Known about the structure:
The complex is a heterodimer of chains A (253) and B (110).
Chain A: H1 2-42, H2 47-56, H3 60-67, H4 76-86, H5 98-102, H6 108-113, H7 117-122, H8 134-159, H9 172-187, H10 192-209, H11 215-228, H12 230-252
Helix pairs in contact in A: 1-2, 1-3, 1-8, 1-9, 2-8, 3-4, 10-11
Chain B: H1 5-29, H2 38-59, H3 72-88, H4 91-109
Amino acid sequence: MRSDETRLKSYGKAFRAAFPYTIPVMTGYLFIGMAFGVMIQEKGYNFLWAMFMSLVCYAGSGQYLAVTFFVPGIRLTHMIFMEFMLNIRHIFYGLSLLERFGRMGKKRLYMIFSLTDETYSLFFITKVPPDVREDQFLFAIAVLDHAYWILGSGIGAVAGTLIPFDAAGIDFAMTALFTVIMVEQWTEKKNRPCVILGLSCGLVCLLVFGPDGFILPTMCCIMAALLLGRGQFDSVAAKQEEVRMREAEQHGN
Amino acid sequence: MAISVGRSLVIVFTVGATIFLTRLIPFLFFPKGREIPQVIQYLGRVLPPAVIGMLVIYCLKGVSVTTYPFGLPEFIAVGAVILLHVWKRNNLLSIGVGTVLYMFLIQVVI
């Protein structure tokens, strides 16, 4: 009993600490989720279906695409292929989280399941407070984001058409979130070549392949450049690390 | 509903499983306990900033710079977010002001 109580308390602490970081995602997810709710409701599925789907699937563009599957005559293999190609960028996200998720015990599978663009990005700007456990903190971020998404879809399916104000453009919250994270990454000098690489590969591939199919080529370009220029990107990172170590040492003295 | 409940459930679980698979693949290749190769550790370090850059482009992929309004609302709002964030370094402030500015630009100005 005693240990259950302390565990509950430390989870409460983790959720309270994580919440402020998730507010931008809340804004975005509630409204993008609502848009999904409206779409699926128009296909004849009520709010329970909308929320159930957001619980099980949990992907923005993936669910928008899935709405078009609820008609007769679409083969499952076609759905699997389309969804896989649309979400293929996620294959690379886990590479940065192998160790952190490895320390998360039973929560590991859920962390992998809930690794959306937004949750992934938040992991790189949040600092775990000293009195909060890292695994509980990351878990809290993942659960909160998922909850906003489910809630948004439910609201959209019930009352999406009754929203009293014009919400056009609210999805810019996601663009703004990624922009803020990019600025944060930029402030660390060692990240700059990588940020520039991501931006330029994305831009060139967008121009060459068009808006519907440029993410896979972009990821391939990024991977190729990072692997071929390993000395380049890593030496920058390593140098930066060295400088920081030296500074830390001096501070220590 | 144009299709049966059973079929709908099959679709939901199929889509869910496919999306989960895309996120699971790296963890299948490098399971817990096995040592992660140097090159993968390196990619894990350098990928996030590159992916964030890509995601910014991804968010702006629908913008047309050749037709009115030439992507101006997006570029102005993204610029405002960057400036505000460099200045104040407050996540919520940058995102909130940027979003409201963008909504104002597309609903009122254009």
